[in-house]
Design a protein that fits this description.
mainly beta; two-stranded antiparallel ribbon; 31 strands; 31% strand; globular
C-alpha cells in the first residue's frame, strides 16, 4: 500500500456482452475456458444464479460451496481462529461501494484464523468484481488480507495500514483484529491454490489502497501456489514480514508494484511472472519488484532481521519498447532499497527504464545473478551483479520470448500472451544458464527445500515446446469474462 492517490480510469469497452437471466439455481452447461487460439483466453464457465452474501463477521468455521456465488459486501473478517473453506470452482464477488464515503468490500483473515481455498486447474477459485463485464475496473473492491503470527522486524501490534477503526468497531470487533506478526516462523494461515483475484485495490482511507493479496506476518506453514492477481489498483502481492513461500504467481496489469516485500520478509518464491498492460492508469512508480527493509513510521523491534526475499525463475516485464512518458520513463524492473537484502537468480527482468536497481540495498550476503536484465536507460544500477545485460530499444529482441507483450486491451484483439522462451530459429538466451548454488541458503522460509532445482532455463516458463503452467486456470481477459 502506498500513501499516494491513484487515478483509476475505466477500461475500454472492447466487446459488448449481453446475457439473459437464467432460471434460479440452474446451469446451462459446464462451461469452459476458451482455449481455441492459445492458453490464457476467456473463462466462460457457467456459474450459479443463486447468490448469498457473506456475514461481515465469520467467527466459526464455514464452507463456501460452489453451487452459489458468494458476495462480499463491506468489511468482512474471519475471526476467533475460525477456518473459511472455499470449494474448488467457487466464485466470490466483491461489491463496489456506491460512493467514495461508503465502506469498501474486503476480506480479512485475522491472526489464528485460516483461509483454505484450494481450487484446481480445471476449477479455479475466483475472487472478482460484482460489476458486469466491460464495467469492471481496478479498485472495484478491496481484496484479500491474510494475517499471521510469523516474524517481522516491527512490533507484533503492527496493524494493517490505512484501516479505519469503524470498519471493526461498527461490527463489534476490537481494532486489534487487524494486527499481525509474532514469533512463529512456520505459522499456518491456510492455503491459496489455483486462485484468481481480480479488480481489487479499493481505497480504504485517504491515500491507502488495498493490494490484491496482502500478507502480514504470514508463516512458512501457509501454502501459496498458482495465484493470479489482475487489474488491481495497487500492488498485486505485498508481503509484510513473515516467511511464507510461494510458487506459480501471476501479476497482470496491476497499478503499482507487482511483488512488494517489507518489514523483514524472509521467504522463497519460484516461478512468477508479471507484465504491465497498456490502456491502464498506473502509479507514479510502478515497479516490477520493490523490496524495503524498515520504513517509518513503524516501530522497529528487530533491526537485525533484514527483508531478504529469495527469488528464482521470475519473469518481470514492463514495456515492449522505450516509453516516452511517465511513469515508465523512471520505473524499475527490480528495486531493492532501504537496506533490503536479496537473493535473485535464474530470472528475466526487462522493459523498464532501469532493469535492476540495488543502489540502496544491503549487498552483504546478497546475490543477483544468472539472469537476463534489460533496461531502456540502464540495465543495472549499483553493484555487484553477475548478469547478462542489454539496453536495446526493443525488449523482446533481447529476451526472445514467444509473445510476451500480446496484452494490449486497447484493441479488439483478445490478449494472448505467451511467456515461454523461443527455441528456433535463434534460441533465446534464457534457454540456458540456470544455477541454484548462490541461493540455496538456510532461510526461515525454507529456501533449501522450497525450490525445484531441475530447471536449466531462466525465467518463469520453459521452452515453447513444453506445456505452460498458466494454462486452463489463469485468464488474461478478466474485463470481458461473462461470469454469468
Amino acid at each position: 500500500m502506498k500513501k499516494n492517490s491513484f487515478l483509476i480510469i475505466a477500461l475500454s469497452l472492447i466487446v459488448f456482452i449481453s446475457a439473459c437471466k437464467k432460471d434460479q439455481g440452474s446451469h446451462t452447461g459446464p462451461g469452459n475456458f476458451d482455449r481455441s487460439s492459445s492458453a490464457g483466453l476467456e473463462d466462460t464457465r457457467d456459474i450459479p444464479n443463486t447468490t448469498q452474501t457473506l456475514p461481515n463477521v465469520i467467527s466459526s468455521s464455514t464452507t463456501l460451496t460452489s453451487d452459489k456465488v458468494w458476495i462480499v459486501n463491506g468489511p468482512t473478517f474471519v475471526t476467533n481462529n475460525a477456518t473459511l473453506t472455499i470449494q474448488a470452482g467457487t466464485y466470490i464477488k466483491g461489491v463496489k461501494k456506491p460512493s467514495p464515503t461508503s465502506k469498501p468490500s474486503f476480506l480479512v483473515i485475522t491472526k489464528g484464523a485460516k483461509l483454505e481455498a484450494s481450487g484446481t486447474e480445471a476449477n479455479p477459485i475466483v475472487f472478482t468484481s460484482n460489476e458486469a463485464a466491460n464495467s469492471r475496473i481496478p479498485g472495484d473492491w478491496g481484496g484479500i488480507v491474510l494475517l499471521g503470527n510469523g516474524k517481522t522486524n516491527v512490533a507484533t501490534t503492527q496493524a494493517v495500514e490505512g484501516m479505519k477503526p469503524e470498519y471493526m468497531t461498527d461490527l463489534g470487533l476490537s481494532t486489534d483484529v487487524i494486527q499481525y506478526g509474532g514469533s512463529v516462523e512456520a505459522d499456518n494461515s491456510g492455503t491459496l491454490k489455483y486462485v484468481r483475484i481480480e479488480f481489487a485495490g479499493d481505497v480504504i482511507s485517504e491515500g491507502n489502497e488495498l493490494n490484491g493479496l496482502t500478507l502480514g506476518g504470514v508463516g512458512s506453514g501457509t501454502t501459496l501456489d498458482h495465484i493470479q492477481v489482475s487489474y488491481g489498483a495497487d500492488d498485486a502481492f505485498e508481503f509484510f514480514g513473515g516467511s511464507a513461500n510461494a510458487k506459480y504467481l501471476v501479476s497482470y496489469g496491476n497499478n503499482d508494484d507487482d511483488f512488494d516485500f517489507d518489514q523483514g520478509y524472509q521467504g522463497s518464491i519460484q516461478f512468477a511472472v508479471s507484465v504491465k498492460v497498456p490502456c491502464l492508469t498506473y502509479s507514479s512508480s510502478p515497479n516490477g519488484i520493490e523490496s524495503n527493509n524498515i520504513t517509518s513510521p513503524v516501530v522497529v523491534v528487530d533491526a537485525s532481521r533484514l527483508t531478504q526475499p529469495v527469488l528464482s525463475n521470475f519473469t518481470i516485464l514492463g514495456q515492449p519498447s522505450a516509453p516516452t512518458a511517465a511513469p515508465f520513463t523512471t520505473s524499475n524492473g527490480a528495486l531493492f532499497r532501504v537496506n533490503s537484502a536479496y537473493k535473485v537468480s535464474n530470472s528475466i527482468v526487462a522493459g523498464f527504464a532501469t532493469g535492476a536497481n540495488i543502489s540502496g540495498a544491503t549487498t552483504s550476503g546478497s546475490f543477483f545473478g544468472n539472469s537476463l536484465v534489460h533496461g531502456f536507460t540502464a540495465a543495472t544500477s549499483g553493484t555487484p551483479f553477475s548478469v547478462t545485460t542489454s539496453t536495446a530499444t526493443s525488449t523482446n529482441a533481447f529476451i526472445r520470448l514467444v509473445n510476451p507483450f500480446n496484452v494490449n486491451i486497447c484493441t479488439t484483439t483478445k490478449p494472448i500472451p505467451d511467456f515461454r522462451y523461443v527455441t528456433a530459429p535463434t534460441p533465446s538466451p534464457a534457454a540456458t544458464g540456470a544455477s541454484f548454488s548462490s541461493i540455496s541458503v538456510t532461510h526461515p522460509g525454507g529456501a533449501l527445500t522450497a525450490f525445484d532445482t531441475t530447471p536449466t532455463y531462466l525465467g518463469a516458463f520453459g521452452a515453447n515446446t513444453v506445456a505452460r503452467w498458466d494454462d486452463n486456470w489463469a485468464t488474461y481477459t478478466p474485463q470481458t469474462n461473462p461470469y454469468l
